[in-house]
Design a protein that fits this description.
The structure is a homodimer. Chain A has about 400 residues and is an alpha/beta fold. The first copy, chain A, contains 18 helices and 11 strands. In chain A, helix 10 crosses helix 11, helix 12 runs antiparallel to helix 15 and helix 12 crosses helix 16. The interface between A and B is medium-sized, with 33 and 33 residues.
Chain lengths: ~400, ~400
């Protein structure tokens, strides 16, 4: 696929005002200023976040100025996007901590060094300085009905759930980022469309400048809902190789092609091959190829190879992995419940997880399935292999 | 009437949370802080504005701390109250100029000197200093639906007229005045109820303090609509004696009793006498008493007496007043139109006023009614008395 077509066609939902206008601007002499805003309420980048970052990287490789904007000011307020109620605000310290970690991970995708290095910006630098009069002037550019058009607010109105007045300020604040950074192009997920269009409006009203907006499709997570930290269904780019591999393998088969398209950079011919393979082969083989590709992208080919071998051994053949962590207990502990060992070792995170796994037959102590985790465990050996779920093994040693 | 009853019963629309609660607070030891907010979009105080000022004076005479708050910051934005569209903002210089003149006039009603002198405050002192984060925190106390409950916004929604987002900030700003001044009581017209209640809410939320709100009824102007500078129907307290007297005389008879009650301080027995007189006598005599009372209040008894005598002479008997201003013209001007002399002397303010008065038979040149003001005026004398409307006379001298 031609690189330029890829830029404006691939993984794009919509371009405002139009694709043609953007193509024209990109073909000019001018170095464009392009940004992606980051909500620093999380410190981790998942494969869904990586989609706009990878789009940013394409602009960077064309020689444009890319900017990663940390919403440290907006983050303290909390974007109401996709929330039914207002969020609990973060402290500024938490926000900065998250931003630091975010940049480190983002550097796997965009370049923060060299001649055309990506800029990092913090919106507290201009938003914290605005006074009441300036806020009033900014808000005077928008009507209440324009704000209420936002789908999320419509939903809340219908459900008779409250909308706080300060939530109207959020899109306007975020829109002002475009003005302060004097932006030509903004990239974001489709869930950010409203906020990005507010910025487009402000650029036109305050700077009489056309701001292009690229909306990118959203990715589904391991439970097939929108990938989001709050759903606990993310695959993070700093996930360790075997966990990343395993999570990809847990995806629904129907997502395999979409993941190839949206999270990797497959040559166009390969997408055809994949599409064909999905109709002929066992999908698990195609998914293994996806998992290996992603681990290679964010780690290395070697680690991808090991993750695959481990997966085949542990999950596909049901054997214990090569390196199994050992936990020592005293012999006096022998009368404790299964639950005690599962939670003490951290093999399960909660009593309810333990019960759920047991009900699925996924708790195995010394080769035997445990049905009731609240029963006592009284082994006759000093070393016991225990297993919870498909891929978690540890050894209990009684000394 | 007992002074205390007068304070909480007379010229009161509603008291929040209740009259009993306010009476209790007023009976305590504590000196209360009571304020009236002034929209400095006008420099003149009319009889409608004087109602809450006179209520403030009652609190002052009881020894409480009264504060006249000049909305110099809010004035720059423009209160949307009673407007169908957002106002054109004033400059800060205009606002301060108006405030200065306002205080001078207000000192006819409340005391700005002595032991318990009234304070003058400007809300720019705290509102201009608020930053974006503080604004966001203030706005987070209110929901969009709470704001939209305001009758004016409901009206606009129904008429599909836009509401600007910054108009939501206005009541919140004004409400914050109560917090910044640490207020116990606020007084205002019924049209300010919403804004005053927002301040009551903020005092409770931020300072856990009960703020009493007194709403006062609004007064009708010379055209029987709500008295308002924008309707041009006001009777201002610094109006010169004969103009004030004349404007009161132009009121509808049905407003006489209401004006006695709301704009003067009649002993309770006198109100009865007035009510009886209105059923028995020619209302013009009762209205003359009202006019004389008001001119006495804002000027002096002597000036009230002269104003009355002049009114009787000019309007009731149709004679020219004693002192008539003279304007000199050259004999070469003799061929000009009636309109030329009417507008050059300032006797009428516009061509349309001249035409309207002529149509009513109220333009008289040298004892003769002028029907068409665009005709030429060719007198055979060197001194001509001309008259426009009931009370305006001047002399033209041709030299």
């Amino acid at each position: 696929m031609d690189f330029f077509d890829n830029l404006v066609d691939y993984n794009i939902d919509k371009i405002y005002p139009s694709k043609d206008a953007l193509v024209k601007a990109l073909s000019g002499e001018k170095k464009l200023r392009i940004y992606l805003g980051i909500d620093p309420s999380s410190s981790r980048i998942h494969l869904g976040n990586a989609i706009p970052l990878r789009k940013l990287a394409q602009f960077q490789s064309l020689g444009h100025q890319v900017i990663l904007l940390i919403g440290d000011f907006t983050g303290m307020i909390g974007d109401p996007t996709g929330r039914d109620a207002a969020r609990v605000p973060l402290t500024h310290e938490e926000v900065l901590e998250n931003a630091k970690s975010y940049q480190k991970q983002a550097s796997k995708i965009i370049n923060f060094s060299g001649k055309n290095k990506a800029q990092l910006a913090y919106n507290s630098h201009w938003l914290a300085k605005l006074n009441f009069e300036q806020v009033v002037k900014l808000t005077s550019h928008f009507t209440v009905s324009q704000m209420l058009e936002r789908d999320m607010f419509q939903k809340r109105l219908k459900e008779k759930k409250p909308i706080s007045v300060h939530e109207f300020l959020y899109p306007i604040m975020q829109g002002y980022d475009s003005v302060a950074l004097d932006i030509d192009v903004e990239i974001g997920g489709t869930d950010q469309t409203f906020n990005m269009m507010v910025g487009r409006e402000l650029q036109r009203k305050i700077k009489s400048k056309e701001k292009y907006v690229l909306t990118l499709p959203l990715l589904e997570g391991t439970d097939a809902r929108k990938m989001s930290k709050s759903f606990g269904n993310t695959i993070d780019i700093d996930e360790d190789p075997s966990s990343m591999y395993g999570k990809v393998m847990s995806l629904k088969d129907s997502l395999i092609l979409k993941y190839f398209e949206m999270t990797t950079d497959p040559p166009i011919n390969e997408l055809k091959t994949i599409r064909e393979a999905l109709t002929k082969e066992n999908p698990i083989n195609v998914k293994k190829k996806l998992a290996k590709t992603l681990v290679t992208m964010y780690h290395s080919e070697k680690e991808a190879q090991s993750a695959e071998e481990e997966f085949e051994k542990v999950v596909q053949k049901g054997e214990a992995p090569e390196k199994v962590e050992e936990f020592e207990f005293k012999k006096a502990d022998l009368d404790k419940t299964y639950l005690y060992f599962l939670t003490e070792t951290g093999l399960v995170e909660s009593n309810s997880e333990a019960s759920r796994l047991a009900a699925q037959g996924a708790i195995v102590f010394d080769g035997k399935k445990v049905e009731n985790v609240r029963e006592e465990f009284s082994p006759d050996k000093n070393e016991i292999l225990i297993k919870a779920g498909k891929r978690k093994f540890i050894v209990l040693k009684f000394v």
